[in-house]
Design brief:
Helices cover 50% and strands 20% of the residues. The longest helix has 61 residues. It is built from 15 helices and 17 strands. It has a five-stranded antiparallel sheet, sandwiched between helices. The protein has 593 residues and is an alpha+beta fold.
Length: 593
């Protein structure tokens, strides 16, 4: 409704702005999305490569620890302490003390080989435990049972195989526990008998050193072990989110997660890779804002161009609407004068575009409309003259009606009641003809007229037909056009009795259909019958030489003109005879008194 009330000028202004700005916004949006998708795909590919390199570096570092775990095999004198039955320290001799010195020298050398090694413990199968810690006390915590540790159980199961654990607390030493990744292996003697389990505790900061050396400052990295425990995280909050909503352990795909950076919400996108050697999973990602930083330029240019086009469109629309609205306003003023009956003709248009053509067509229309009004006025005068002539013509049936009335009265005076009744019936029929175009009449009145017509036809065709009437009392007030049934009864009398050697029986029946809103009137006979071809000709009125058949077609046309095409007349073959069924809407009317 608001759009309809706007002026043409404002509509044109709005449309031009939308038409000019919408393509720019669409193209800018499409370009932004396409460039964003390209950058995201390129970043994912780059992150996949970097993640692969990081996995390779971590795997190489772990491989070094794998080699470190077999160094005790190169110092067999250190094994003597594990080959012998367990001897308490207070009972050690020179051999045991010498072996212990060699073992301590070996373990203390490990941190110098790799600074990420924070401690080392040898668990002998004979119950002997020896350990070394880089910082803090190297004394063993005798209350700690290493057999409950998962990595220790795996080392026993693999019998010499290399085992890597996730990050866990090291409680084997006296003093404060610390976090570390444990690599372990079972040591075997020459007869492949288990001697001890070596455990090297490594600080998780070796992963940070690898990331720092790779210069991945703008990249977030999260490393998770096989048990889905956190090994390393450059963003703790993001790592917690990834652990709660992570991909399946065996999946290598992409991920999107939210975090906070300097109290700001940040959205990260990245990839996930899994290392088969360690069964560790690496999540690597970048800030989407940093990835899409280049695409913001496209968005800014789009906004600037759209604003410029909007101002240009506003100016163009103003000038264009001004040139178009002036002649339209002149046409509107002229139309209002025409509405008031002032047929003022505008001057010829000075332009030849669409507006000029509209102006020219309007001028011609006004001239033609003026001529038509003059013509209609003349036709109205002719119509009044024709109505006066029709009124004079209509006096003739009235004169005939009054004359027959006089003859009827004379027949009564001369004591001829039969002739008086027949003339009375004819008078009623003539009166119905005079009311042929009036309003609906009750069905009871129409049946009375049919009965009068029956008496007249019985005078002409004596003892040729009988008529039975089946009109329920509740349908007596049904409305029906005047003289609608007479042509149907006439058709039955004329045609159904031709060549018939017995008395023709005609039944007139009225009833309501199932919906109680449709009146059905059936006029049936047991006469000579009718063919399908004759039924088609009868309804189409093709037999111009037969006035009765033309009357049947006119009845059908009258019904449809009165009530619509869903109602009408139907002709059916009977065994024997013919049935004509008329359907009209049931509308009760009151008979005028």
């Amino acid at each position: 409704m608001l759009w309809k009330r706007l002026s043409y000028h404002r509509k044109l202004f709005i449309v031009l702005i939308i038409v000019s700005s919408l393509p720019v916004f669409l193209l800018g949006t499409i370009a932004y999305k396409k460039s964003s998708e390209t950058l995201m795909q390129q970043t994912e590919q780059d992150l996949q490569i970097i993640a692969g390199q990081l996995i390779t570096a971590i795997e190489k570092q772990i491989s070094d620890f794998d080699r470190f775990s077999i160094l005790p095999y190169y110092m067999p004198e250190a094994f003597t302490i594990f080959n012998q039955p367990y001897i308490p320290e207070e009972n050690w001799g020179s051999a045991e003390l010498n072996a212990q010195k060699q073992l301590i020298r070996l373990m203390s050398a490990y941190p110098s080989i790799n600074t990420s090694i924070k401690g080392m413990v040898l668990y002998g199968m004979n119950g002997r435990i020896s350990g070394y810690r880089l910082s803090g006390s190297s004394s063993m915590n005798k209350n700690f049972d290493v057999k409950n540790e998962k990595w220790y159980q795996e080392a026993l199961e693999r019998r010499g195989g290399f085992v890597v654990s996730g990050v866990h607390e090291i409680k084997q030493f006296e003093g404060e526990a610390f976090q570390a990744v444990t690599v372990s292996r079972m040591l075997l003697d020459e007869q492949m008998r288990p001697l001890a389990v070596i455990a090297i505790h490594i600080s998780p900061d070796f992963i940070e050193k690898i990331i720092t050396s790779s210069q991945l400052r703008d990249t977030v990295v999260t490393v998770v072990d096989a048990d889905h425990q956190l090994v390393y995280a450059s963003d703790e909050q993001l790592a917690v989110h990834l652990l709660e909503h992570s991909l399946d352990a065996g999946a290598n795909g992409v991920w999107v997660a939210d975090s906070k950076l300097n109290e700001r919400n940040v959205k990260y996108s990245g990839v996930v890779r899994q290392n088969k050697y360690l069964s560790w999973t690496i999540y690597m990602g970048k800030n989407q804002a940093d990835i899409l930083q280049g695409t913001s330029t496209i968005r800014q240019y789009t906004v600037v161009i759209a604003i410029v086009l909007m101002f240009a469109s506003a100016i163009v629309s103003w000038l264009l609407a001004k040139s178009l609205s002036r002649p339209i306003l002149r046409l509107i003023r002229s139309m209002r004068n025409v509405e008031n009956g002032k047929f003022e003709v505008l001057e010829a248009p000075s332009r030849y575009d669409e507006i000029g053509q509209l102006h020219l067509s309007y001028v011609r229309m006004v001239k033609r409309l003026n001529e038509l009004i003059q013509s209609i006025a003349e036709k109205e005068r002719q119509k009044r003259r024709a109505e006066l002539y029709a009124l004079r013509v209509r006096i003739q049936p009235h004169f005939l009606y009054n004359t027959l009335n006089s003859i009827r009265m004379l027949a009564i005076l001369q004591q001829s009641p039969q002739i008086a009744k027949l003339i009375h019936s004819l008078n009623r029929l003539l009166q119905s003809y005079l009311k042929l175009n009036d309003e609906l009449m009750p069905l009871s009145k129409e049946i009375d007229l049919l009965q009068d017509y029956e008496k007249l036809m019985d005078l002409r065709y004596t003892n040729t037909f009988d008529v039975e009437w089946d009109i329920p009392e509740q349908l007596q007030d049904a409305g029906i056009p005047a003289m609608l049934l007479q042509p149907v009864l006439e058709n039955a009398i004329f045609h159904a009795s031709r060549g018939l050697r017995r008395t023709l029986l005609i039944t007139v029946k009225a009833r309501l259909l199932d919906d109680d809103r449709t009146l059905s009137i059936e006029i049936m006979d047991n006469g000579v019958g009718i063919t399908e071809e004759q039924i088609t000709d009868l309804l189409q009125g093709q037999r111009k030489d037969d006035s009765a058949h033309i009357g049947i077609n006119n009845v059908n046309d009258r019904i449809r003109l009165w009530f619509g095409r869903e109602y009408g007349l139907t002709v059916k073959r009977m065994e024997p005879g013919t049935a004509v069924i008329i359907t009209i809407p049931y509308k009760p009317v009151r008979e005028e008194i």
